[in-house]
Amino acid sequence: MSYHTESAPQNPPQGWTPENPLIGTLSPEEQWEWNGGGWELNSDFVYESTPIVEVNLQATVNDNFFFQSNPDEQYIGPYHRHEDGTLMIGDGIPDIEPKPESPPIGVSPVNPLVGALSPQGQWVWVGNSWEENSDFVYEHEMIPDEIIFRKVGYQDIQETREKVSDIFYKVWFESNTLSEEEILSMQTTIRDGIKQTGRNEDEPLVFYKKDRNTLESRKDLQGDAFEEICQYIYTNQIDDLDGRFDILVTDLQLDETEIVRYSLRFRRNDLSFIGVQIALKVEGEFTDVLNLSQLTKPKFGSRIDAEKAREVLDTNIFELLPNQTTRQDQINDFFIEFDDLIGPTPNFEDVDGDGVGEDPVNYEQDEQSRISFENQSNAFITRLDEQAEGSSINQGKTIESMRNRLNTYLNDVDNVVETLEDDRPEYENISNGFLKIRKPNQAIILRAPDNDLLEFQKINPDTGNPSYLDDGFTITMWVRFISKTSEGTLFNFGNPLEENGSGFRLDTKVNEYNGNYYRYIRLIVRESDGALRDNHWGHTGEFGGALGRLSNRSVDNIHERVHTAFPQMPTDNLNEWYFICATYNPSINELELDNSSPYFTNRQYWLNHISPTENGDTVVANSNLGAKCKVEIISRSDLLRARGFKVDDLTVDAEPNVTEQSAEEQGIPPNMSFNKNEIDWIPKSIDNFNPIVEESFNL
Description:
Structural class: alpha+beta
Number of helices: 13
Distance between the termini: 94 Å
Radius of gyration: 50 Å
């Protein structure tokens, strides 16, 4: 239901008489009540709220807005529009409900209350937070005393009257066909100096510029019914009038005289009608025909004397045309005028030393020469958008706005992808080759002359420990793995993993997680007191809990993501070489920490880079705190890039080898031990094992 379009009825209710005043009768939309002598607003009418579609509109004196409850009181100020077209005073901006700061009452993991609404319904709970309710409709209470409408004056409604008058013709002729005699009887002529309705064939025909200016229009179209139709159409801003008008034909009998009455009906929004009688046909002849005197019917004939026409009319016509401006002329003129209007280039100063000026030194002088500063005859186009903020007529007409628009035409120029030639040198190998250890039962055993001890084996007489435990050691080697899943020892002395074992071991392990293979490198050292050290650095895992560093994880670790706590090598490129540097430093103070320590899973701490201070942790090159064992890895490609060389495909392609083998087929991997029985290389958690590596190394 529309709340503002029902105007006060113009006539008393049907059936009203002084004897039967019909007090309490309601209008068609029930917004008006008959009090016996006039219509007044129905105080019991319930205005339902509807969504607001336009807010913060402004009513001025010339808008002619008046209160519906008091049509004589004009309203000036902010107003808003509802979805049904109702206009109400006030800006209509809805109150915004603040976002709740706590979950809804009763929420729990078992009952998350997803979909719960805030008190005003503007927020909805999604299980862990509040979000705006997209289904919320901002409504406003319909207050009758705040409803306004636009009063239409005579000048405002002239166009509507003309449009309705035109429809009279259209609807009439879709239903009736007039004879020539009937058309003559409705036309206007001048007889005896007076305009009269009805003319003969030889009398002049009077045409009017406006249909409503005909004799019939002045007499009939100014009636209440016609004015009510026009007011209703204009007030409700009805543009589509198709189907709104029809002809109602009624047969009457008056004293044995047959009369046919033609009424033009207009349908309101509530499906009620406003009727206008447009014609009567008495005994087959039209009388009282409304607004049809503008009609005429073309007649064809030949009244022109061709010979006389040739004598009078000049059939040779000459036209003098000025010089025509071409499109190229327009373009030339544009650039000439643009050069005259753009003004001089500002003087820019390079303030950041990048060789490009960015700070105009004559900004004020340049700004004052622009049209937005003062409309002078020699002013130039405004340069910046911000300079046009105080000049509404020049907004969008600046050099900056022009530049922004031109950018959309030049993407192919501004976004040219240039090919930069890589002029870095290509690395050339210095050595002639390398040592390959890639078959089962292949290894290198290091021995001193005459079966004497190697340097790192020799015992320190002061401590009774071998040299490698007191002085430390570093193992370096280049290695390339030919399989994603191969595991084994890269270098070992003794077997530190045996119970009561000794020595050290550098090996590679592979962990399978979520269908992917992860290769990591371990350095394990058994100290003289039996303590087992490795290069595990601790890790805060997203799954399976934190992987903290408790002494070592080389033996007792069964964490599903153990690879995250050791240095890794990619398994997707089997052509890449990697340089491994494994170090044991006995001077590092390796503390026994548990999960109560903030360094328990701190990777940089175990890599000897965190030095605790009173002012907080400091990152240093070597803090002498953390793990004694450390392994660092760099690929050959990354090393060459760091040294400024171009890196291409290094070697031939090698297909991944994932063939399963039994323990007997696996054989013995490379081993540097003096005691064959101390070898411990078979993995404890992965069954398949493949031949290992091509490698070269140094001790």
